[in-house]
Every structure is written in structure tokens, then in C-alpha cells.
Amino acid sequence: MRGSLRLPNGLRAARASVRSTSILPPRLAASTSAVSQTAINAPILRNHIFNLSCKSFHTIPSLSKNRDRDAIPDNSHRTSFSELDVLGSVPVPSTSVDVCMHDGFGLNSGITIAGGDGALLVNGEAFAWRPWEVSGKMKLVNEKGQFEVPAEAFGLFDVLWPRPDLLVIGVGKTNLPLSPRTRQHLTQLGMRVEMLDTRNAAAQFNLLATERGVSDVAAALIPIGWEEGSGVVS
Are 164 and 217 in contact (CB under 8 A)? Predict the structure, then answer.
């Protein structure tokens, strides 16, 4: 006999509650709900981002490049090489050596010492100097290869006062050491000595005489054409 099985009301209600109740844990159910809500709102978010990206941006061109390009350079801070010459405005001594010749010297004053003579430049005066005549021999170098002349060759300094502080000696084409005897005599006169070849000695005298004055610096120069034993041969 067919018939519907009637269940107690309490049992039917229990089945209905089972169907409507989720079997997921509370946290998983909440995340599932959030995911579904995000999926629903995704088209709205995409439209919002698209609208933001479509907005135009306006920029202002930089003026710094144009200003630097049109700026006029200021050259007032540059140093002129002529300003570095501290002796440029100092007058050159009249006894400064302009040229060293084979048999003599040409001075700034226009005086020419020639004929194989040396030059003695002291206190603004120029003298023809022949130190080899004191010994009577055409020799200025001793057996040890040192420059040596008799004390009488510097007799002018015996009567000169005040004496120069420095004596620059040019010994000819090549430099030579000074003999101890000659150095001792010049030291007793209160002068320091600097030995150079004649060309460099003339340049050194010109510089120091311009800087310190002709009263402090003197020069004794042998012609560059001097040959030991024969003198200057033309």
C-alpha cells in the first residue's frame, strides 16, 4: 500500500535546516564571500582605472637649458699671463747682457765688449776684463781642471765698498768648478760665488740684477770662444 510517509514535524524541520546550512568553516565561508564580491566589482574597478589613465598630463618646458645657452660667458676672472710677470714693469739694468758673442758681449746700454775680452759688470758699470794677463799665461784652468785666477784679477773689489753680495762667474762654453784658493779669496771679500757656463751666467745675472739691483749682484764673464792655452781665436 502506497502512501506518503509522514515524518514527525521535528524530523522534517531538521532536514530543511541541513539543506540551508553551509558546511564550510566560518573563515573559508567569509573568504569565499569576499572573492565573489571582488569578482562582481572587477568590471567597475577596471573602468575606474581606465578612466584615470585616459586623463591628459600637461608639462611645462624647462627654461634652464635656454638660459644657459643664451648666457654670455664672463671672462673677467681669467688671469692674463702678462700679469704673472712680476718684473715686467721693472726697468732692465743698462749692464744686462743682451747677447753673448764668440769674442765678447753686447750690453743693453749699447756698449759692445769685443776683441776676446771678458766682461766685469759691477755696480752698474761695465769693464773689459783680462784675468789671464795677471799670470802672463793664456790659462784659466789649473792642473785639477778647476777655474783658478790670481787674486789680483779681482783687484777691483778690493777698493769697492759696499761690495756686492753675489758674484756670478761665467767660465766659458762649459761649466767648471772653482778652485779652493780662488773661492777662499772671494769669501774673504764677503761675496758669495755662483759658477756657471757663460750663457747661463749672463742670464742669471740679468735676472738677479733686475730683481735685486746691480749693487747686490756682479758678474765676471769669459767669452764663449775662449780656448785654454790660446785664448779667443777669431
Answer: yes
Give the CA count within 13 Å in the CB-facing half-sphere of 4: 3
Among the listed residues 147, 121, 149, 128, the one whose alpha carbon sits nearest the alpha carbon of residue 206 = 121
Q: What is the pLDDT of residues 39-76, one digit of tens each?
A: 445 555 555 554 545 555 555 555 555 555 555 566 55
Residues 6 or more apart whose Cβ sits within 8 Å of residue 90: 210, 211
Report the alpha-carbon distance of residue 218 to residue 167 in Å, rounded: 5
- Distance (Å, rounded) from C-alpha 198 to C-alpha 103? 12
Indicate the pTM of the whole model.
0.64
β-pair partners for 167:
193, 218
Closest-CA residue to 140 (of 153, 128, 127): 153
Lookup result for grid cell 567597475: 44
Q: Is 169 helix (H, G, I), strand (E, B) or coil?
A: strand
**Cell triple for 221:** 764673464
